[in-house]
Amino acid sequence: MEGLSSYIIDYYKIDKIIEVDDEIIEKASKYLDRFRSDEWNFGKDFKKYISYSNKRDSGLYDYKLLLKDGKIMDIRIFGDFFEIQDVSELEKKLIGSDYSKEGIEYALKDIDIEKFIVGLKMEDFVEDLLRIGEKIEKETRMD
Question: Are 58 and 83 in contact (CB under 8 A)?
Answer without folding.
Answer: no
